Amino acid sequence: MKLEVQAVSKTYKDKKALSNISIIFKEQTIYGLLGRNGAGKSTLLNIINNRSFPSSGDILLDNTRITDNEELLNHVYLMSEDNLFPSSMKVKEMFKISEEFYGSFDWDLANRLTDLFELNQKTTFKKLSTGYRSIAKLITALCVPCDYIFLDEPVLGLDAGHRELFYESLIETFENRPRTFIISTHLIEEITNLLESVIILDQGEVTLQKDVETILQENYTLSGPRDIISDFTKDLNIIGKEELGDFVSVHVSGISPETLPTGVRLAPLSLQNYFVQLTKRK
To answer: Which of 119, 126, 156, 278 would be 87's cystine partner, CB 3.0–4.6 Å?
Structure first.
């Protein structure tokens, strides 16, 4: 059951938020949806999950339009900064409402995760800190029976320890019940090891869809004296550069060279740095 974004555009008055977006999300895959602030990530996620409507284009699940189709919409879930539950509702009641809406709920996992994160299910949502509100919504997202789980800035307000716990929990639940996760976050370095594929949005357009393994294999950094680097890289595909006096680091896309000139060092290019180079404003 593939999920397809088909030529989706969104315009707000005079501003075009999304321009002809086409993406196919595969089953049982963990994606990173990356983009700078204002790139259109949240707009896209809201459209996919029927919280907003495109100006043109369609969202298809199993080759059928998902818009206003309750049966198909039960296969997708969006966790975001928006709070869809009454602030006076207790955490356990949030879980019960989710179970009623989606037809089932993994209570064993929910109970285990609330213990792990030390979240009291009897606490009302309004009494939770920002971090614990995120935790309550994340637990809900991991326990609903949906095939496509969208997480928009999922670790907002979480400290480093809780973020690590969440990443571990996500991988564990993915292994126990494979489904597709789409994670939109600015903490790229932290989630690189979770991701199988990334989609980069820039100014409302998809600029890259590629497997993470391929990106890491095909991109690297060369550092050394300016004159040597300049001569050695003149025929290479340079995607970015940093300079400090006569010392230069260039970021290169392509097959890494087998031999290097004296004084030149080669290092892997991280996914986060790759993203920064691709979206850097000139």
So the answer is: 126
Residue 223: CB atoms within 10 A of its CB come to: 16
Q: What is the DSSP string of 154-168?
A: TTTT--HHHHHHHHH
pLDDT band at 83 (very low <50, low <70, confident <90, very high): confident
Residue 234 CA to residue 195 CA, distance in Å, equals 33
The predicted-structure confidence for 229-279, as pLDDT tens digits, reads as follows 999 999 999 999 999 999 999 999 998 888 999 999 999 999 999 999 999
> Where do the domains of the chain lie?
3-203, 215-279
Task: Tell me the pLDDT of the chain averaged across its residues.
Answer: 94
CA distance 104 to 143: 9
Ordered DSSP codes for 52-112? S--SEEEEEETTEE-TT-HHHHTTEEEE-SS--S-TT-BHHHHHHHHHHHHS---HHHHHH
Q: How confident is the model at residue 82 (pLDDT cuts 50, 70, 90)?
A: confident
Dist. CA 232–CA 228, nearest whole Å: 6
Length of the chain: 282
Query: What kind of architecture, by CATH, is found in domain 3-203?
Result: 3-Layer(aba) Sandwich (3.40)
**Structural class in CATH, domain 215-279:** alpha beta
For residue 132, give both structure tokens: 């614990």
Rounded to 5 degrees, what are φ and ψ at 234? -60, -25
pLDDT digits (tens, 9 = 90+) for 112-127: 999 999 999 999 999 9
Task: Write down the residue that tokens 């690189």 correspond to.
Answer: 192
Does the pLDDT at position 68 exceed 90? Answer: no
CA dist list (Å): 129 to 40, 112, 123: 27, 20, 11
Hey, CA dihedral for 138, 78, 208, 242, is it positive or negative?
negative
Quickly tell me which residue has 């300049």 as its tokens.
Answer: 230
For 271, residues 6+ apart whose C-beta sits below 8 A from its C-beta are: 32, 188, 189, 192, 195, 198, 212, 215, 216
